[in-house]
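Suppose a colleague, Dr. K., hands you the sequence of a protein chain of 120 amino acids and asks what its three-dimensional shape might be. Before reaching for any lab equipment, you can write down a predicted structure in token form. Begin with the sequence itself:
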Amino acid sequence: MILSKNSDVKAISVKAIEGEAVYGGELLVKPMLMGDEMTIMEIHYTPGVGAPLHVHTHESLVYVVRGKVKTMVREDVHILEPGDVCRHPAGVPHSVEALEESVMVEIKSPAPDIANFFKT
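The predicted structure, expressed as tokens, is then:
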């Protein structure tokens, strides 16, 4: 696939990431496009919703479009606002929690199998 229109992509209600249960409410993910080596997703958080500390085999870049999120990478805590970017290296424990209504874009490489990534 070469093109993906946001209006054509259905949001997935995610209950777990890498086998760790999401907390605080509903986390919505729109898997926008998967390439040969990467995937891009739009993630919607309501305040208090979070992805707990987890580790995966791919690298992620997180870009905050709207809102405010707290991310922890190893023991370092960062508050991200619109326009801020954070890297979650492969094999490094990290977490994300929305401090207010937030939208992020996340790029993952190499592209994980999304069906397995969100399994409980």
